[in-house]
Design brief:
Blueprint: E1 2-7, E2 12-17, E3 26-34, H1 37-43, E4 56-58, E5 62-70, E6 80-83, E7 86-87, H2 94-97, E8 110-112, E9 116-117, E10 124-127, E11 132-134, H3 146-162, E12 169-173, H4 177-188, E13 192-196, H5 204-211, E14 215-217, E15 225-230, H6 235-241, E16 245-253, H7 265-270, E17 274-277, H8 283-295, H9 298-301, E18 305-309, H10 313-318, E19 326-330
Parallel strand pairs: 8-9, 12-13, 12-15, 13-14, 15-16, 16-17, 18-19
Antiparallel strand pairs: 1-2, 1-4, 3-5, 3-10, 3-19, 5-6, 6-11, 7-8
Helix pairs in contact: 3-4, 3-8
The structure holds beta-D-glucopyranose.
Beta-D-glucopyranose binds next to helix 3.
Length: 332
């Protein structure tokens, strides 16, 4: 079958023919697979690992698939599904044992298409039913946004639990797919939302955000936010945005990388402010993501997606695509 993979011997990304996966509980016909910053980091060999003893890793962790064969009555043939990314650590730790692999404490978890397990950017895959989330047919066209939305739902959940008051204003750093989905998730919670990013104020992303009731700006506002979601990958901007947090405010860091930055600890102390990281998502967040995408206006979601043939995957990974918010490759 055709697959997009990282060749660890030649240290390059390539499209290749590889053997189909051995039979499993559910056989999936992969329909499409999204790409994100993690895939670009993987393609640069910045992190990630192939399955033990194998020379390559099939990429892809934002997948939409159709059940092709199944031994589980709950997921009959033809069901459209989105798979979870993370699999339990060996042990397993207390979090993994209760299904919250996103909170794994040993760090020995595996992630499909990222750490130690093949991903879904291939024609076929197999999975356990417990790792698959059924998608209503009405959502199939935007289902590729379920995985990034699950990360956002978890981030909002964490923020609400950590905020000791009543959050009303969300500031999002970055207008990529995660940033835009975070903005929609904030609007859904009844928060007023501002997105700060580099794209011009009359650009496509800014226009789409304004259509959805979100304010857009290119510089950081003063102390306005109860919640800040960092989805821009910049530690420097994240550190500067601590100055945007109102007392009791919570910042959720999703994309920033390790860098030496100055943090205003006194402001954190006297304002009871919190900065925390969040990664991956639990099963309830996948369900929440499906539910919230279902209630969002499709005219805000569909323009986020640019579909391309698999043959263009190398080009998509080589550089972030300026105008496309979520690049998706078709497998079937
Ligand atoms: C994925 C998460 C994953 C994280 C770290 C992100 O791109 O959306 O599911 O846990 O990368 O590997």
């Amino acid at each position: 079958m055709k697959a997009l993979l990282l060749d660890y011997r030649e240290r390059r990304v390539r499209l290749s023919d590889v053997p189909e996966p051995p039979p499993g509980e559910v056989r999936l016909r992969i329909l499409e697979c999204g790409t994100c910053g993690t895939d670009r980091d993987l393609a640069a060999f910045a992190f990630g690992a192939p399955p033990a003893g194998e020379p390559y890793l099939i990429l892809g962790h934002e997948a939409v698939a159709e059940v092709a064969e199944s031994s589980t009555p709950e997921l009959p043939k033809g069901t459209i599904v989105v798979p979870a990314v993370r699999r339990a650590c060996t042990g397993p730790c207390v979090s993994c044992a209760r299904g919250r692999r996103d909170l794994c404490t040993t760090g020995t978890y595996q992630e499909r298409g990222i750490f130690g397990l093949h991903g879904y950017c291939a024609e076929w895959a197999v999975d356990h039913a417990e790792d698959l989330f059924a998608i209503p047919a009405s959502l199939a066209e935007v289902a590729v946004l379920v995985e990034p939305m699950s990360v956002v739902e978890k981030a909002c959940d964490v923020a609400v639990r950590l905020h000791p008051g009543e959050p009303a204003h969300l500031l999002v750093l970055g207008a990529g797919a995660v940033g835009m989905l975070a903005a929609w998730a904030g609007v859904q919670r009844g928060w007023s939302v501002t997105v700060v990013s580099r794209e011009p104020e009359d650009g496509r992303r800014a226009r789409l955000l304004r259509m959805g009731g979100v304010a857009y700006r290119t510089d950081l506002p003063d102390m306005v936010a109860d919640v800040v979601v960092e989805a821009c990958g910049s530690a420097e901007l994240a550190a500067a945005a601590v100055g945007c947090l109102k007392p009791l405010g919570v910042m959720i860091v999703l994309g920033a990388r390790n860098e030496t930055v100055r943090l205003p600890f006194l402001d954190l102390i006297v304002g009871n402010r919190t900065i925390t990281g969040s990664v991956n998502a639990g099963p309830d967040h996948f369900r929440q993501a499906i539910a919230s995408l279902e209630t969002l206006d499709p005219s805000l979601l569909k323009p986020m997606i640019e579909r391309r043939p698999l043959a263009r995957a190398l080009e998509s990974l080589a550089a972030p695509v300026s105008d496309a918010i979520k690049v998706v490759h078709a497998l079937h």
